[in-house]
């Protein structure tokens, strides 16, 4: 499948997780743009200051839940307060190492979060995310 | 002063004579509050939340004793309720039990011995209920901790495992040897993180469930053991490790807790160093003087931001994503100190370093 060029943001405090995510994404299509952040605060800054781009599809954010300093949910809280012109450029997928009923219920409160995925990120999962249409 | 130690008893009756004679009969033994009506009675209850026994007349104008008890069951559930009545109406008795949930039913005119016995028995129930309340609060705390614990265990233990699994899966599509080696190194770090986490759980169990074993502590021995552990870390990361011990008197304490405290403080001091720091240093100072051991662990590392200082001793709190940590270490330190009745304080300046000072008393 010839996937079109897309933009990804990976937010995870584990170096290895970031490495894996970047690999999986690049293996899918080497021309994808991948930005890696080990701290959510830095990702938020980058999103805020990024100039408007005219990309055909939305950028995808892979967001870890449990992180120090700013965790995934704190990130989403702040993200949802950003102007709509910024928010609509991104689809957030939260990722966690375990299925937690509370987390599952909690993400329903955030329209910008598409789904909760379970680690590790695999190529099948990536294909699913690329083809994802929120109904 | 003497009054404050006596059991506080509230007596409500619309007949002044009864109030006066009740107080006269029992004031030596108890701290008696009297009320002519239920409004006054509520004032007393509001002002004296430690009233343990409420004795109330049944037949009063406006509100019966049972009605009053039914009302305060919700608002003041703790005091033990005793109903006093001159009439033996079986309807009243049934209501007293079912609606007022009274502890004793006494007949008027009362016999002093019956009142003494009812109040004393009531007080016993009051104390028992209070104890149960304390135990329930402890149990609730334990449950809450267990919830947090279960969440963290699934996350922090599965975390490194699924990450390693992910790495193994992408290894299939990798052929660059250098890249593979780089990944193996990261996998190793994940394994170390997991191992460290399990060690922390072990410490947590030892501090929380284990009994303290008080013995004579030779700080030289304990520090030598830590030196062994950190010697390599210090060398590899080019960190100067300075220790200074002055112990001229015997000191008794729990060796296991002592090791947990030292190990966690030192491992943090080594871990949270500035990456490109010059003259990196960790200093351990132990001084035993007149039955007090002062342990100081000082580093010139990354420091802790002021808004995080208050949280660092909380379970699973992590102030930084620098290096791997489980958010467990300082919690265990604080827990151990709580058991040993010790103190800890921390001073830190971002980018200049952190100093932890632990105070322990001879057991």
Describe the fold and architecture.
The complex is a heterodimer of chains A (135) and B (363). By secondary structure, chain A is of the alpha/beta class. Chain A contains 6 helices and 5 strands; from the N terminus they run βαβαβααβαβα. Chain A has helices at 15-28, 40-49, 72-79, 84-87, 101-107, 123-130; strands at residues 7-11, 33-37, 59-64, 90-96, 113-118. Chain A has a 5-stranded parallel sheet with strand order 2-1-3-4-5, with helices on both faces. Chain A is globular, with a radius of gyration of 14 Å. Chain B is α/β, with parallel strands linked by helices and 363 residues long. In chain B, 52% of the residues lie in helices and 21% in strands. Chain B contains 11 helices and 12 strands. In chain B, the strands form 3 sheets. Chain B has a 5-stranded parallel sheet with strand order 2-1-3-4-5, with helices on both faces. A 5-stranded mixed sheet of chain B has the order 7-9-10-12-11, covered by helices on one side. In chain B, strands 6-8 form a two-stranded antiparallel ribbon. In chain B, α5 links the parallel β4 (80-85) and β5 (104-107). In chain B, α6 packs antiparallel against α7 and α8 runs parallel beside α9. The longest helix of chain B has 60 residues, at 112-171. The radius of gyration of chain B is 32 Å and the shape is elongated. Chain B starts with a helix and ends with a strand. Chain A binds chain B through residues 13-17, 19-20, 23-24, 27, 38-39, 65-69, 96-98, 100, 118-122, and chain B through 151, 154-156, 158-159, 161-167, 169-170, 173-174, 182-183, 186-187, 189-190, 317-321, 325, 327.
